[in-house]
Amino acid sequence: MHTLAFPFFLAGAVAVACWGMGFAARGLAVAPGVLAGFLIGQGLIAGWPNLPPIGAVDRLVWLALLGGGLALAMPWLGEAWGKRLALGGVLAVAVVWIGWTRLSIGQEDAWVAAVTLVLAGYWAAGRLERQGGNSAAVLLAVAAFAAAAIAVYSASYSMAQLIAALGAAIAGSMAGAGAAGVGFGSPGRLVGGLLLLGLVAMLAFYTRAEPLALLLLLPIFLADSLLRHFPGANNLAARADGRGQRGVSLALLALMALIPAGLAVAVAVSSAGPLYY
Q1: How far is Cα 132 from Cα 239, in angstroms, rounded to an integer?
Q2: Domain assignment present for 155
Q3: Residue 45: CB partners within 8 Å, gap ≥ 6?
Q4: What is the mean pLDDT of residues 205-224?
Q5: 67: which of 22, 23, 42, 190 fits an S-S bond (Cβ 3.0–4.6 Å)?
Q6: Is residue 221 in a domain?
Q7: In terms of DSSP H, where are the helices of 153-239?
Q8: Which residues have a Cβ under 8 Å from the Cβ of 239 and sit 6 or more positions away?
Q9: How far apart are the first and last CA of the chain?
Q10: pTM of the model
């Protein structure tokens, strides 16, 4: 439990500190919390990252920094096509760097996985951008915990802990600065999103993770669209007032996201062989 508690509380504390120092103006309150929480989780689970990076796990923190840098550079990238091109390039660099051990020897299935990961990441990033705010954080956290459960049934318990630490860091950051009305800005989305993409890429390239289970993480980011088909749920949120209304809406969004998350985990369970002895 400490591998979840430390990331959660440290992420929250860092996010609140950044908010107090006025970093919220450009959405920078939450992103440092996510990064700090994940780093402490990685240190507890897999050890501190090597400098220079040696293995894929050492590269994760650099992906987070790359995501934060891209978010800060977005206002200067001009037209929408330039921003889309930059995002696609960063996602491609992230996936290829994580999977280079296999990609460099020309394994066809690895390259298919890489292309799929980049396209999936690009689509998910677009969905998160449309969501914005705390809703994006909820979907990222649900996706992270679902990916952690898939990792358990991919015979990779340490990976499961690492991905769950990311989910805890996202939740902790939002419990801190997000509760103060800061919301999950573009830096937070890209830092958390690139970390999750890197971790899912590690599952795809280096573990026995069921590909279909990983693909089924994508419908989690459609939870808001699915929720619109349930008028009763929207009426329930409308009856609440102020912050209560927002809290009910986020809770309903999380519950809807748990449906595809549960399906993804169920596929992983059904396809798993013997795990631990």
Answers
A1: 23
A2: yes
A3: 3, 158, 161, 162, 165
A4: 94
A5: 190
A6: no
A7: 157-176, 186-206, 211-215, 223-227, 231-238
A8: none
A9: 22
A10: 0.91
- Distance CA(252)–CA(248), nearest Å, equals 6
pLDDT at position 273 is: 66
- Determine the length of the chain: 277
Q: Confirm if 206 and 45 have CB atoms less than 8 A apart.
A: no
Q: Please list, in sequence order, all residues whose beta carbon lies within 8 angstroms of the beta carbon of residue 48, skipping any fewer than 6 positions away.
A: 42
Burial code (b: 16+ CB inside 10 Å, e: under 16) for 211-250 equals: eebbebbbbbbebbebbeeeeebeeebeeeeeeeeeebbb
Distance CA 200, CA 217 (A): 10
Q: Give me the domain span that covers residue 179.
A: 2-209
> What is the pLDDT, as a whole number, of residue 238?
53
The rounded distance, in Å, linking the Cα atoms of 236 and 234 is 5
Contact 160, 148 (CB under 8 A): yes
Condensed to tens digits (0 to 9), the pLDDT of residues 258-274 reads 999 999 999 999 887 66
- How would you class 116 by CB atoms within 10 Å of its CB: exposed for 0-12, middle for 13-18, buried for 19 or more? middle
Instruction: Kindly state the DSSP code that residue 76 receives in the 8-state scheme.
Output: G
Check: CB of residue 190 under 8 Å from CB of residue 30.
Answer: no
Number of structural domains (the chain) is 1
